[in-house]
Give the backbone structure.
Amino acid sequence: MSESDIERWIDGRIAFPIVVSGPSGVGKTTLVGRLLARDPRCIRSVSVTTREKRPDEAEGASYFFVSEERFLQMRQGGELAESAIYRERWYGTPKSFLTERIAEGKCVVLNIEVLGGAQVRASDPGALLIFVLPPSWEELRRRLTSRGTDTAEAIEGRIRRGHEEIRSIGDYDYVVINDDLDACVADLAAIVRGERRRRARLDGRS
Ligand code: 5GP
């Protein structure tokens, strides 16, 4: 067996949810996109939400956009692996996609806020939790402003929520700082790779 065959064999057996959280505007969506481009064994979960679609978003790619009635139906019917309210809108992770992809040997990457992260960890202690920090709050405010999608009030709301979310950092396994994007992606990829190797060792223990 060549080395790459061994790697493929190991990586195909080790699959776990990867939760990526952090303040809004920190760059989670870009980071996750770059991680997926580098790591064919990672796949992104597409959440369900009751918030309105932004002009640059596509149904089923960014989110599944549903009514509150439909969301609550899914939640009550046990179709969501986790759910939370963020700025008065519901967000949740479809359970079947998550469990099916994990069973296929894929790491499913969830870009979700901290309440959802805690629910994922509670139902699967093997989940990997990574928290993304901005280099500073000023830089975060600058990024949110230059995104141009929010009012000044909404930006302050996101920053306030970001401060609250950081209080949960102790529940996360790793912290990365999104100052330089390439360096941050490299850190993320190294963490995922390291976890696969560590878990291969632990799983192989008799
Ligand atoms: P946005 O509305 O800016 O796309 O997302 C707002 C927040 O909701 C972000 O922190 C994002 O990570 C989080 N989020 C997106 N999808 C989910 C989900 O399925 N569950 C939870 N708990 N949070 C989510």
Q: What stands out?
A: Residues 24, 28, 47, 51, 82, 84, 86, 91-93, 111-113, 115-116 surround guanosine-5'-monophosphate (CB under 6 Å).
